[in-house]
Amino acid sequence: MDCKESRCRLCGYEPLRSIFDFQPNPYGDLFHSNREIALSSQKFPITISRCDSCKLLQLKHETNLDSQYLEYLYLTGVTNNLSKYYREVANRYINELNLKLTSHILDLGSNDGAFLQPFMDAGYPVLGVDPSRLAADYANKKGIETLNEYFSEETVSRIKERNLEIALISVNYTLANVPNVSLFFNNINALVSSDTYVSIITGYHPEQFMVNMFDYIGHDHLTYFTVGNIEKVAHDFNLEIVDVEKIEHKGGSVRILLRRSPVVPKSSKFQLLQREKWLNVDSDAAVLEMLGRVETSKHELKEALRQNSNGIIGGIGASISTSYFIVHYQIKDDISLLFDDDARKIGRFSPGSGIEVRALQNLVLEEVDSVVMLAWQHTDKLLNRLSEIGFHGRVLIPLPRFHIIEL
Asked: Are residues 232 and 354 in the same domain?
């Protein structure tokens, strides 16, 4: 499969300047049904880099999208409280934006249709676009019309042929996955009228890096946006930020609402842009400081695992981020089994490490005496689950700072 160095995904500048090379990894969500295939999965570089022209933080290499997304196992419902948050945002837009009930809601990267469901329930016509066969099939079976494809110029042409009036175009945790951000905005722009809102929800690395969320950096997340980055590309297409809001999902995210100029932005836009200047988000310092703290956590975790070398150690969580975590922390030989509630992962093997995934509810049957909280972003929820199933033992929590608790 191809893997080549990329130009800047926003302005096209090259070459990108490398900041840090992570361990090469297979694509993090490709949990295989065969252990040998999982172990031999092709690895690709993960190099966090910056464009010295527009300052956008991004991965240096461009990888094969089909290999990642056609058999993508992830569904929105797996992420703690994300579907609930989507309902809250959808209902807020329905109540506040005066969207015409006869106009379509278009969701790009719609996955299982979780964001579109509240609009459909309220009587709006909806349309999703997503390349994952599993997700698109799941949504279509629920009655949420979903085009199983990438959002492209051809998609735009097909939508235009249907003469759809579009009230809202949503891009939820998709923009970071797009290999050409400027082209993606150009395609959005072709569907935007003076009455169309564009809503973007994306990971916000100035917040994520503060809590040491290095494992958001992976092949699926090609780009790491600031509000300033998005404002620049929006201006290129005569779009203006109307509202912006920081949110807590995925270690720190941001919701941005755009509309065709002229508009009157809320003060939240100017406040967050000012904060980005104070934080100097276009420098490499925050990235390097975060990586330094992660390295300290790595050494502390490995020392704790060495002291527990005679026991059976389980890993809690089987996801994209936990795949990258295992490789970067070099702990694949320390973890005997992974445990997760996602039925699609159970019985499969983690890419690169080949560790089998078992049902979390069966953890106590495996005589595990210590667990590593790989899905550390959901520690509170998972600690409750461990208590529910009757686990007693050590829980090693690597981040945002390493510590151990006893259950």
From this structure: no
**Mean pLDDT along residues 317-323:** 94
Same domain, 350 and 246: no
Comparing 8-22, 296-310, 369-383, which segment has the lowest mean pLDDT? 296-310
Where residue 307 falls among pLDDT bands split at 50, 70, 90? confident
Same domain, 87 and 230: yes
Instruction: Return the structure tokens found at 277.
Output: 């200047």
Measured distance CA(2)–CA(12) in Å, rounded: 20
Residues 88 and 214 in one domain: yes
Alpha carbons 209 and 381: distance in angstroms, whole number: 22
Nearby residues of 364 by Cβ (< 8 Å), 6 or more positions away: 389, 390, 391
Is residue 265 a contact partner of residue 206, using CB atoms and an 8 Å limit? Answer: no
| Residue 62 forms part of a structural domain | no
- What is the domain range of residue 151? 76-283
Question: 276 and 157 share a domain?
Answer: yes
Q: Which helix (H) or strand (E) holds 190?
A: none
Name residue, tokens 């809590």. 211
Of the residues 283, 315, 336, the one at which a domain ends: 283
* 7 domain-assigned: no
Q: Are residues 302 and 323 in the same domain?
A: yes
The single-letter code of the amino acid at 387 is S
The pTM assigned to this predicted structure is 0.92
CA angle (197, 129, 142) in 5-degree steps: 105
Instruction: Identify whether the C-beta of residue 32 lies closer than 8 Å to the C-beta of residue 351.
Output: yes
Write out pLDDT tens, residues 58-101. 999 987 766 665 565 666 766 668 889 999 999 999 999 999 99
**Cα distances (Å, whole numbers) of residue 154 to 147, 150, 158, 374:** 12, 9, 6, 40
Instruction: Look over the chain and give the mean of its residue pLDDT values, rounded to a whole number.
Output: 93
SS3 content of the chain, % helix, strand, coil (to 5): 40, 25, 40
Number of domains in the chain: 2
Q: What is the pLDDT of residues 150-195, one digit of tens each?
A: 999 999 999 999 999 999 999 999 999 999 999 999 999 999 999 9
Do 235 and 292 fall within a single domain? no
Whether omega before 262 lies within 30 degrees of 0, making that bond cis, reads yes
Domain boundary among 252, 283, 314: 283
374-384 pLDDT, tens digit each = 999 999 999 99
What percent of the chain has pLDDT above 90? Answer: 85
Does residue 70 fall inside a structural domain?
A: no
